[in-house]
Amino acid sequence: MPATLAERGRDAAAAAAIALLLGIPMIGLTTVDQGGALRVQTRWPWLAVFVIAVFCGRWLLRYGLDRLRTRRTRARSDSTGTAARPAPGGRLPGALAWLTFGISLALPLVFSDNRYVIDTATTVLIYVMLGWGLNVVVGLAGLLDMGHAAFYAVGAYAYALLSTRFGWGFWEALPVAALIAAVFGLAVGWPSLRLRGDYLAIVTLGFGEIIRVVLLNGAEFSGGPNGISQIPRPSFFGLPFAPPGEAPTFAAFFGLEFSPMHRILFLYYVILMLALLTNALVLRLRRLPIGRAWEAMREDEIACRALGMNVTHIKLSAFALGAVLGGVAGVFFAARQGFISPESFTFNESAIILAIVVLGGMGSQFGVVLASLVLVLLPEIGRDFAEYRMLLFGAAMILIMIWRPGGILAQREPTLRLAAKDRRV
Length: 425
Prior knowledge:
The protein has about 425 residues and is mainly alpha-helical. It has helices spanning about 5-30, 45-75, 95-110, 115-140, 150-165, 170-190, 195-215, 220, 250-255, 260-285, 290-300, 300-305, 310-335, 345-360, 365-380, 390-405; strands at about 30-35, 35-40, 85, 415-420. The strands form two sheets. It has a two-stranded antiparallel sheet. It has a two-stranded antiparallel ribbon with strand order 3-4. A hairpin with a 2-residue loop joins β1 (about 30-35) and β2 (about 35-40). It is globular, with a radius of gyration of 23 Å. About 35% of the residues are buried.
C-alpha cells in the first residue's frame, strides 16, 4: 500500500537527521586562517539549506515512488491477461530521471571555468560506473565480491600497455581492454562456483590482492611501484587538445582560443556517455532471461538448481559483465590520469565500491548514483577536517545502515513481475 503522509514525513525526517549529522562537521564547520592561527568558523545557513533540501528531496522521491507503485498496481488489476510487467519501484519516475540527465548535461556549461567542479563530477561518474558493474554481481546476482578493484586495475593497465607499447588509441583499446577484464572475471568466477557468502568474499578479496601484488612486483611489464606514465589522452576524432602548432588541433579546427578546459570537458562527456550506455545495458539485461536468472539466483540458488537452471553459466555471466564494466572504467581512469600505479587499486577502492552498492541499495541503479554522490562529495566537503574525515565517514555509514538497512533506495523486488487478472475457478 502507498505510504501515508505521516509515513512520508517520518521517512524524510530520518533522512534529514542523517544529513544533519553528516553536515555538521562537513558543511556547518570550516577552518579559516586568522593571524597565522586556524579558527573554526560556522556556516549554519548553508547547513540549514542542505538539511531542508534533503528533507524535501526525500519526501518528493517517496511521493513519486508511491504514485508510480499505485499506477502500476492499477494497471495490473485492469489487465485482461497475464503478462510480465515492471515491478513497482524498479525505476524512478521519468521526470526525475530526465531531470538528473539534464543536470548532468548542463553541469559543464554552468561550471565551464571551474576545473575543480568538473573533475569532481568526473570522479563521481567513474564511481557510478564501478558501482553499476559491481551491482550486477552483488545487487542482482547476490554474489559477494570484495575484489572489484582488480578488474578496475586490469582495464587500466591493459590500456596503458596497449597505448604505450603498441601505439593503440583510446577507442581502439577500449573494447580489447574490456575483453581482457572479462577473461579475468571468468578466471575468478570459475574456481569459486561452489562458494557463497563469506567464502566467496574471501576468494575475491584474495584475487584482488594477487592482482595488486603482481602489478607491484612485475616491473618488467607494469613498472612496479613506479607505475606507468605518459599514457596517451583521448583525442576528439584525431584532433588533440594541444596548443596550436603545425598539426591540426581541436582549438584550431573549430576556431577557438586554446584552453586546457577543452580536454577536461571532453573527458567529462566521454565518461557521461559511457555511464549512460552502461545504465542502458544493465536495465535492458535485467528484463532479459539472464537478468531474471540473476535475480532468481540471488533469492534462492538451491531453488534455481532444482528448477534445472544452469547456475554455472549464470554466475560466470554476472562475473564477466561486472568485470567488463569495471575494466571500461579502468580504461577511462588511465586515459584521464595519464599515470597509474598499483597504489590506485588497493583494497580500499574495492571497499568503497562495495559501500556504494550497499549504501545505495543493492539492485538499485539510481541508488548507486546517490551513494556515489555521498561517498565522493562528502569527503571533498570535509577536507578541512582531514584528520577526522574517515572517522566521521565510518560513523555516518554505521548510522545509515542502522536507520536504512536496505540502503538509500532499497530494491529487492524483481525487475519483472507476472501480473494476472483474478479468475473465478
